């Protein structure tokens, strides 16, 4: 039994100590510091006056009676009641029920704060004054003081307290004839039965009826189980006030230990809300500050750092505003405010949403029916009390689901004398799969859960509803999840049990208590609450106490049982989970591999190891591995050989690498006994255990892991203590959470429960014995774990601590974190120490000390918690350092012996394939190739395997940097990964420090970036020393920037001479190229030497200075004197022999051949000029005297003398004066190129250098020459020739140079940016162009480019997409010559319409901008590290930032402008920068767009040779080929031009004979330095080096191609890779491509990669071994399918899946070789097919659909099938073949028809091949006497009149020649001995010559007839 009330207290208002009392105008006024009527509470009386022994009187009750402060009131308030809760120092809660009423303060009353004065006043009141009626009004100014009746109790019976205090107040107010002392005495002596006791068997005991002696009766119902909280209606009210979401937030906040503050104007509401929240937390108890009603004076409590649940009156809301970390729930407003800095983790899904749904079903049952068409009649909703229990039932179910299986994760550490229980948090989270869940993690770490474990973990105790629910109902709850109505039924069942617990006897709940009358508080009461007689009350209390002494003490009788554990977590999950993560097949693979290892089948084990390592990513496989390894351990030891040991260690490491520090799946726990069991013998007496090889895992450095392991093992041993030996069948390694009772043996909890039950029955000695046994068990385990920890924490090599490596979770040990080694130790290891100083073991000691500290902290914690005696603990502390030291000594021997083991076999280095002549400079250095920012290689969005990182070696050869290796991911398979690039292409080398992918060690590395868009990001293997890495860098640097260009690969390749020696000149009858070049240079020097002595010579920058910009004075110097001797500059027949030699060589150059083709002039043997020609070829520069960077022969106007050119050249930069490079065949307009103009500085230089008058004359003469020169260009155009006499250009020169006042007749045009041009209009009737800057800012007026260039009227509709318009509607006033120059040089020139030329100032980018843009492009296409958020957008963004496509757009735009001008008949002079970068790009593009010849293979070669090589583009300087160029860096001007061609090719795929691959090939090799073609900066330098003419004549080497063109020719004969099958040109086609950025595509040359073989541009290397045909299976099995998986970025797609035509040609070749016929050239086959197709089309008489399609294409743009090459090419075959019909060719011979499209495009210019091979094919030829028949390749040459034969079609060496002049007859022949058997007799024919008879045999009769006819026709022609 327990007391209902402990104390009764009367508290009244008293003045505040700081306040003084003043009497004024008859009323009492309380003046205090703040002016309000504030006072303080005073205890007038308390009963009993002495404290109870078991329950002292709580201090500070006065504050809680009036939480808002004691204040006087101007009017009478009705009485109030609430219950405050006080918590004492022992965490006991005291319930203070407070009933407050107000009494008037009399005006005459003297307020003296003593009890005596109060008594006198009471007597005076009673005697002297009559009682007024209740209706009498209060006097004006009357004040009322509060008085409170307080009942203090440890029991929570709110209603009983309300009734009891109400009764006392009613007796006082109503003046009932009942003695108050008796009532209070009875109240204090009333006892009620204890909750949940055995005495509740009778209704009388369980429902106690009490009476206080005033005719009242109350029934007190005690809850059945006291552990279940009593909530009445508080939970339901909380939900009504705040709503579901808010309450769930508060619930989670309270569980995760946040601060919660309730606000309300009602104190009772605050108390109910706090009570309700606590009820929801059951079965967890809230253990932090809990104050449902906080007094105003204690508001600073809210600033406490600890969590709390507190209620505060809403009046103080302002004071709570500045609390930053408090969650505020406003009960009156229904809101919950969560501060920004507070994160409340939500419940884990699906529990959050399920709980929300069930709560809404309980609170709003109508919701389910709201949408029904015929809703059922409304059922009566649950009462508030019932709804309250239903809501609590929902949360009870929630906790059962959250904590299901928790008992399987309890560790019983001690059973006696008191149970010590620990919870294995990691195992619990791991089994639930909620390791990452923030909510559950915080709950399990909280104090409430710690209390839950210690209270409910006890195995033998009384149980309640929650225990039943979590043990038996979990399966039902899982089954009901998807059935809401079954869930609701379950909730209602639980609610009924909760309701019954609170109201066990609802029938007897009848109260009869006197209440005061209505408005009784308004009556004018004559007397205040009387002072009570203490003696009477004390006597009643004493009487009751005496009576109770005789009764037995009230003991809370408990029905204790073994707590049910319920099903283990694993069983629950397995029953309900979906398909398992690991299939049975994977587990079988693991088992098989382990059995192979232990059976010694190492080869089998090696094969299956990759699959095992992949399977070990799954949890089941890791468990399976641990289980299988356990089976191979006998007597705690398993000795393995070295290979087995390596396999086992590798699998263990693989298991452990995915373990987190908590080891939530118990993998590390299962492996811990194994790492000390598996070992190998290193030498006699030295054994290495597996633990020394698996230390690199974060789990070993986590104290929580060791604690959980320790407690688990202790539990196993404690359990074994109390079990019979036969019962103990559970292995020590059995994982926590597994059903240990599976084989019938009781679990540790069952054993503990039984022992606790028996404990009271045991004798004292027996109890003592058990306690000692348990204690020594824990002690022995502590010693065992000290050993285990030292095994796994001490590194094998303690001098170089592996613990120092940065692994996750390792911080500073001293901070009691999960770390092993202190930072101070890290420092000590870094420093070297002197062994002589006696500190040899400095590091070892430090490692030892750190480990000892770690183990000691662990031992302290676990031993203290497990109740180990202090003596034992001290002993342990002494033991630990010895254990560690002993282990270190053992390890030293192991480390020493392990070093003697043969090293682990690393993968064999794969040797790269090398080119002929390529040599290794540095042999392979072991490296890891790491993934860079491109995601293809790592199996990113494109799919495919993770090829990177790869393990292999990097090789440095004379030509390339090559990586070859294999992927480190064993599952990718043995795919060879190759990534290489030419050394010459290296643009950046950067040292990096990276982790190696296998060991995760930090290693040095290199990042090499190349301009061929390759990136090698490498980490050196640990075996590669820093000196080797440094040597690699130095050698690489040396090869990249050779001191002399002669030491590059292009020169050393095929050279018979060692590098150091000078090349000997071969003696020859004719002058060799070396002699020739020497003569050339000598003559040039002679010529240059004949200058005025006063003038400095201009020297081109030497090798060492190349790359540095020329100085100011150098730049402006004049290279040649004005008046050279006539013999040097005028052509004459009396040239010296060396000069003639020079001339003949120059005539053979590409430029000269092209000039002849274009009809731009001829150069006869006498060098006489044909006067009718407007232009002539001038040899003025043949000695490179005028301009070093120009070719030897130049096209100049006919009327200009050579000696005048000297003066003209001075006005231009680098002396590059305007020369003609192309002429339009249709409009006869010419394209000229030159360097930019010299500015004013040049004129100033002229003036300053000589005396004033000659200087002036000199400048004028230069200007005059320039004037004449440009006039001559204008005059040479046919349509302007008549006006040439009238026009003078006297002032043009000065205007053009910007040195004088501009001429009023010159007209200036500015090219605008076309993007800004769409909205512009012509402003002047003259049709001038407005100026729009190229930067994209419109200057107001812009016009469409196409319209401007064609001079069209802009009234026509503007073209979309940047498309140029037709070239009709030409402007009447069109200039004869447009000069396109840099805007900066043409400033200040005023436009004038009368002149015949216009200046077009444009803004162009400089070379440095190209370089900067290319750098960004490189980083965009081959980023060095993965993007933070990889997405296509990030690539496009970085591409846009590079501005590369904008530069391409500008180039195309300018080129289209020039094309339009030329097409409309105006000539154009491109005069930009120095004339060798952008000028070259523009003029090349213009010629390519205008002239179809340049779109053939031969034409494009000619274009590059002429414009880029002969006109001196500085390849060596821009490619940074020498140390001098290193600072200037790589500037890809030529690559940019190729990109422009690629853009045009994409838009017009049928107009180019060459393929896209050809462009990529040139792009790669222009930077590779494999060929000599793109070396050096000009023809002059090439002659000086002896490069220009060495390839001509018989000296050509057959070993290796020195020229890229020769290589292309050779390759083209073998393979059609450079040929475009869709080629079907229109001869007159001028291409006008779209140039807007939106029309441009990123060239795949920048992004594609083939890791199988490296870049595919070295054809010899790219040809891998052929695929075996289908039938040839080595194992003789069924033929495999030909299906092949093509991996992006690994395989070369064009090779694996060639286009249809290539495939057919390959097939033809294969069939020919099978039939024994020498294969035909692919080109002949192709041309024959095309010709026959064309003939068939013609015979049909009607166009095929594809030809109709072609004819429908508009004339000016035939970009039909723009993206043909992205699809299967075969589908466009007929289209491209038929399209030649439109050109109307009518040649009779099919051979000529076939060749028409390419070589005979221009009849006046034919390639060597086409003119020397009239007919060719295979014939069998009978050898001379006694020799057999042989198949040979015969070529009939009409030109040379011979029949030549070769060994095979691609052979370049002729084996024999039959001169047709000697042939007498061609006649049918007969077969002879040895002739081919299968051939028809009629296929034989003989050719009779004057010397002998040749016997031939063709492959069939028609071809024999063809041959005879051909030879006959040749003979007749002759």
Can you put this structure into words, describing what you see?
There is one protein chain. With 1918 residues, this protein is an alpha+beta fold. The chain contains 61 helices and 46 strands. A 7-stranded antiparallel sheet has the order 28-27-26-25-31-30-29. Strand 40 (1815-1822) and strand 41 form a beta hairpin. The protein is elongated and about 160 Å long. The termini are far apart.
| N-C termini distance | 142 Å
- Give the overall form: elongated
Task: Characterize the largest beta sheet: strand count, sense, and whether it forms a barrel.
Answer: 7 strands, antiparallel
Residue windows where pLDDT falls under 50 for at least 5 positions: 19-36, 108-138, 197-202, 572-582, 726-743, 801-844, 1056-1077, 1080-1138, 1165-1169, 1240-1257, 1281-1372, 1591-1598, ...
What percent strand? 5-15%
Q: Determine Rg (CA atoms, Å).
A: 52 Å
Strand order of the largest sheet: 28-27-26-25-31-30-29
Task: Give the overall pLDDT as a whole number.
Answer: 76
SS elements, strand count? 46
- Number of contiguous helices: 61
Which structural category do the helix and sheet elements fall into? alpha+beta
- Secondary structure: helix percent: 25-40%
């Amino acid at each position: 039994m327990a007391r209902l009330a402990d104390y009764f207290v009367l508290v009244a208002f008293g003045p505040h100590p700081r306040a003084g009392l003043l009497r004024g105008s008859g009323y009492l006024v309380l003046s205090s510091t703040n002016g309000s009527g504030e006072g303080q509470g005073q205890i007038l009386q308390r009963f009993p006056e002495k404290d109870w022994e078991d329950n002292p009187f709580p201090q500070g009750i006065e504050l809680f009676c009036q939480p808002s402060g004691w204040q006087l009131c101007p009017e009478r308030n009705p009485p109030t009641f609430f219950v405050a809760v006080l918590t004492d120092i022992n965490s006991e809660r005291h319930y203070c029920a407070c009933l407050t009423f107000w009494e008037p303060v009399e005006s005459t009353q003297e307020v003296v704060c003593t009890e005596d004065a109060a008594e006198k006043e009471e007597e005076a009141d009673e005697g002297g004054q009559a009682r007024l009626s209740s209706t009498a009004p209060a006097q004006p100014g009357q004040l009322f003081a509060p008085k409170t009746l307080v009942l203090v109790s440890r029991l929570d019976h709110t209603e009983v307290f309300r009734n009891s205090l109400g009764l006392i107040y009613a007796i006082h107010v109503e003046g009932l004839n009942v003695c108050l002392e008796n009532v209070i005495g009875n109240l204090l002596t009333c006892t009620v039965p204890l909750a949940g006791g055995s005495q509740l068997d009778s209704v009388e005991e369980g429902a106690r009826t009490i009476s206080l002696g005033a005719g009242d009766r109350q029934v007190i119902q005690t809850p059945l189980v006291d552990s279940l909280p009593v909530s009445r209606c508080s939970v339901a009210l909380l939900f009504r006030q705040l709503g579901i979401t808010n309450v769930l937030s508060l619930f989670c906040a309270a569980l995760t230990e946040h601060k919660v503050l309730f606000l309300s104007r009602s104190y009772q509401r605050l108390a109910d809300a706090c009570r309700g929240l606590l009820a929801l937390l059951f079965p967890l108890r809230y253990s932090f500050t809990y104050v449902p009603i906080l007094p105003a004076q204690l508001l600073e409590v809210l600033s406490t750092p600890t969590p709390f649940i507190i209620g505060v009156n809403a009046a103080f809301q302002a004071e709570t505003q500045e609390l930053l970390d408090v969650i505020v729930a406003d009960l009156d407003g229904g809101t919950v405010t969560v501060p920004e800095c507070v994160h409340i983790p939500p419940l884990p899904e699906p529990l959050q949403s399920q709980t929300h749904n069930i709560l809404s079903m309980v609170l709003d049952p109508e919701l389910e029916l709201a949408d029904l068409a015929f809703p059922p009649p409304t059922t009566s909703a649950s009462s508030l009390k019932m709804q309250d229990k239903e809501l609590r039932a929902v949360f009870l179910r929630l906790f059962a689901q959250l904590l299901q299986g928790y008992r399987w994760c309890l560790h019983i550490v001690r059973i006696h004398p008191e149970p010590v229980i620990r919870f294995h948090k990691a195992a619990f989270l791991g089994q639930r799969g909620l390791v990452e869940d923030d909510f559950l993690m915080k709950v399990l770490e909280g104090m409430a859960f710690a209390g839950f474990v210690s209270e409910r973990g006890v195995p033998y105790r009384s149980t309640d509803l929650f225990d039943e629910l979590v043990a038996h109902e979990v399966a039902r709850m899982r089954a009901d999840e998807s059935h809401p109505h079954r869930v609701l039924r379950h909730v209602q069942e639980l609610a009924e049990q909760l309701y019954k617990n609170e109201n066990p006897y609802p029938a007897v709940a009848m109260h009869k208590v006197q209440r005061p009358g209505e408005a009784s508080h308004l009556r004018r009461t004559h007397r205040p609450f009387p002072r009570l007689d203490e003696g009477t009350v004390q006597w009643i209390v004493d009487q009751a106490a005496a009576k109770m002494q005789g009764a037995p003490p009230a003991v809370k009788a408990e029905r204790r049982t073994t707590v049910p554990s319920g099903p283990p977590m694993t069983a629950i999950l397995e029953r309900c989970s979906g398909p398992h993560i690991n299939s049975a097949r994977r587990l079988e693979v693991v088992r098989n591999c382990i059995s192979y290892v232990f059976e010694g089948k190492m080869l089998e084990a090696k094969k299956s190891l990759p699959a095992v390592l992949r399977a070990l990513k799954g949890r089941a496989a890791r468990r399976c591995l641990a289980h299988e390894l356990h089976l191979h351990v006998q007597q705690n030891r398993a000795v393995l050989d070295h290979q087995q040991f390596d396999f086992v260690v590798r699998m263990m490491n693989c298991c452990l690498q995915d373990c987190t520090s908590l080891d939530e799946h118990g993998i590390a726990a299962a492996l811990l006994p194994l790492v000390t069991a598996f070992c190998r013998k290193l030498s006699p007496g030295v054994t290495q255990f597996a633990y020394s090889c698996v230390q690199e895992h974060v789990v070993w450095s986590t104290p929580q892991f060791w604690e959980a392991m320790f407690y688990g093992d202790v539990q196993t041993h404690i359990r074994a203590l109390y079990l019979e030996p036969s019962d103990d069948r559970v292995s020590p390694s059995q994982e926590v959470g597994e059903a240990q009772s599976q084989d019938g043996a009781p679990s540790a909890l069952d054993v503990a429960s039984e022992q606790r039950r028996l404990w009271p029955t045991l004798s004292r000695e027996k109890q003592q014995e058990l306690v000692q046994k348990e204690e020594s068990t824990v002690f022995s385990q502590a010693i065992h774990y000290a050993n285990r920890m030292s095994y796994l924490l001490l590194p094998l090599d303690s001098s170089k601590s592996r613990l120092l490596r940065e692994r996750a979770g390792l911080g500073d040990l001293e901070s009691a974190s999960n770390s092993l080694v202190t930072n101070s130790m890290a420092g000590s290891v870094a420093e070297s120490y002197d062994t002589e100083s006696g500190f040899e073991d400095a590091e070892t000691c430090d490692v030892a000390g750190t480990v000892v500290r770690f183990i000691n902290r662990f031992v302290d914690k676990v031993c203290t918690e497990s109740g180990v005696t202090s003596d034992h603990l001290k002993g342990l502390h002494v033991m630990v350092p010895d254990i560690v030291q002993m282990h270190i000594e053992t390890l030293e021997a192991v480390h020493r012996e392990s070093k003697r083991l043969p090293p682990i076999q690393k993968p064999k280095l794969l040797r790269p394939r090398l080119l002929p002549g390529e040599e290794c400079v540095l042999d392979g250095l072991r490296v890891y190739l790491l993934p860079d920012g491109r995601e293809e290689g790592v199996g990113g969005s494109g799919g495919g395997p993770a090829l990177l990182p790869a393990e292999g070696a990097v090789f440095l050869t004379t030509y390339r940097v090559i990586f070859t290796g294999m992927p480190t991911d064993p599952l990718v398979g043995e795919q060879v990964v190759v990534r290489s690039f030419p050394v010459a292409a290296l643009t950046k080398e950067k040292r990096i420090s990276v982790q190696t992918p296998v060991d995760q060690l930090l290693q040095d590395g290199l990042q090499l970036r190349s301009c061929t868009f390759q990136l090698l990001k490498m980490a050196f293997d640990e075996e590669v020393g820093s000196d080797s890495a440094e040597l690699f860098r130095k050698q690489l640097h040396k090869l990249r920037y050779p001191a002399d260009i002669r030491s590059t690969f292009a020169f050393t390749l095929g050279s018979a001479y060692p590098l150091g020696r000078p090349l000997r000149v071969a003696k020859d009858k004719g002058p060799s190229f070396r002699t020739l070049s020497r003569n050339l240079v000598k003559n040039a020097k002679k010529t240059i030497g004949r200058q005025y002595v006063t003038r400095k010579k201009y020297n081109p920058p030497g090798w060492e200075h190349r790359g540095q910009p020329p100085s100011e004075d150098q730049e402006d110097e004049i290279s040649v004197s004005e008046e050279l001797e006539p013999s040097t500059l005028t052509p004459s027949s009396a040239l010296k022999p060396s000069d003639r030699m020079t001339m003949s060589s120059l005539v053979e150059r590409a430029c000269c051949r092209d000039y002849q083709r274009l009809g731009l002039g001829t150069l006869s043997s006498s060098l006489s000029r044909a006067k009718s020609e407007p232009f002539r070829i001038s040899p003025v520069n043949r000695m490179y005297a005028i301009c070093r960077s120009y070719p030897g022969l130049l096209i100049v106007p006919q009327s200009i003398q050579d000696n005048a050119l000297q003066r003209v050249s001075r006005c231009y930069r680098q002396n590059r004066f305007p020369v003609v490079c192309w002429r339009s065949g249709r409009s006869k307009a010419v394209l000229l190129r030159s360097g930019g103009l010299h500015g004013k500085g040049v004129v100033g230089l002229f003036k300053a250098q000589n005396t004033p008058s000659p200087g002036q004359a000199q400048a004028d003469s230069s200007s005059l020459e320039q004037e004449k020169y440009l006039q001559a260009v204008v005059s040479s155009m046919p349509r302007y020739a008549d006006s040439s006499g009238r026009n003078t250009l006297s002032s043009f020169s000065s205007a053009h140079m910007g040195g004088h006042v501009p001429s009023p007749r010159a007209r200036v045009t500015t090219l605008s940016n076309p993007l800004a041009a769409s909205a512009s209009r012509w402003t002047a009737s003259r049709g001038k162009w407005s100026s729009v800057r190229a930067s994209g800012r419109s200057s107001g007026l812009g016009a469409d480019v196409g319209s401007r260039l064609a001079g069209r009227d802009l009234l026509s509709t503007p073209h979309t997409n940047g498309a140029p318009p037709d070239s009709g509607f030409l402007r009447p006033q069109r200039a004869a010559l447009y000069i396109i120059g840099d805007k900066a040089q043409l400033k200040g020139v005023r436009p004038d319409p009368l002149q015949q030329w216009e200046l077009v100032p444009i803004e162009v980018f400089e070379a440095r901008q190209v370089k900067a843009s290319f750098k960004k492009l490189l980083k965009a296409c081959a980023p060095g590290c993965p993007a933070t958020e990889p997405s296509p957008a990030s690539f496009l963004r970085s591409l846009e930032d590079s501005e590369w496509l904008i530069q391409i757009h500008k180039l195309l735009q300018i080129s289209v402008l020039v094309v339009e001008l030329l097409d409309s008949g105006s000539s154009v002079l491109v005069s930009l920068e120095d004339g060798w970068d952008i000028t070259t790009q523009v003029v090349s593009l213009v010629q390519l767009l205008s002239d179809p010849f340049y779109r053939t293979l031969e034409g494009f070669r000619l274009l590059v040779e002429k414009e880029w090589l002969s006109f001196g583009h500085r390849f060596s300087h821009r490619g940074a080929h020498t140390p001098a160029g290193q600072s200037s860096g790589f500037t890809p001007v030529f690559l940019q031009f190729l990109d422009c061609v690629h853009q045009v090719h994409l838009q017009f795929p049928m107009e180019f004979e060459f393929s896209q691959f050809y462009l990529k090939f040139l792009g790669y090799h222009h930077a590779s330095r494999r060929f000599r073609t793109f070396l050096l900066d000009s023809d002059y330098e090439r002659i000086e080096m002896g490069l220009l003419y060495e390839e001509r004549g018989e000296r050509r080497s057959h070993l290796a191609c020195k020229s890229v063109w020769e290589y292309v020719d050779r390759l083209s004969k073998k393979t059609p890779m450079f040929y475009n099958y869709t080629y079907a040109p229109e001869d007159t086609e001028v291409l006008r491509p779209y140039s807007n950025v939106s029309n441009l595509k990123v060239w795949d040359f920048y992004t594609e990669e083939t890791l199988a073989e490296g870049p595919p541009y070295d054809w010899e290397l790219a040809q891998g071994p052929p695929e075996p045909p289908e039938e040839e299976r080595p194992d003789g099995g069924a033929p495999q399918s030909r299906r092949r998986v093509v991996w992006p970025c690994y395989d070369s797609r064009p090779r694996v899946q060639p286009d249809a035509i290539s495939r057919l040609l390959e097939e033809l070749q294969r069939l020919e070789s099978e039939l024994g016929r020498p294969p035909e050239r692919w080109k002949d086959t192709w041309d024959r097919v095309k010709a026959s197709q064309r003939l068939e089309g013609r015979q049909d008489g009607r166009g095929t659909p594809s030809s109709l399609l072609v004819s429908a294409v508009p004339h000016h743009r035939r970009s039909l099938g723009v993206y043909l090459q992205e699809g299967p090419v075969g589908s466009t075959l007929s289209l491209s073949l038929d399209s030649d019909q439109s050109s109307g060719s009518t040649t009779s011979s099919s051979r000529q028809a076939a060749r028409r499209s390419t070589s005979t495009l221009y009849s006046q210019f034919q390639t060597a091949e086409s003119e020397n091979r009239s007919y060719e094919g295979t014939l069998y030829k009978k050898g001379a006497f006694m020799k057999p028949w042989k198949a040979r390749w015969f070529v009939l040459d009409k030109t040379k009149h011979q029949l030549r034969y070769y060994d095979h079609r691609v052979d370049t060496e002729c084996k024999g020649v039959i001169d047709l002049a000697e042939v007498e007859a061609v006649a049918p022949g007969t077969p002879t001995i040895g002739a081919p058997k299968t051939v028809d007799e009629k296929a034989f024919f003989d050719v009779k010559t004057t010397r002998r008879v040749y016997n031939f045999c063709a492959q069939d009769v028609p071809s024999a007839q063809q041959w005879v006819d051909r030879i006959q026709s040749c003979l007749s022609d002759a």
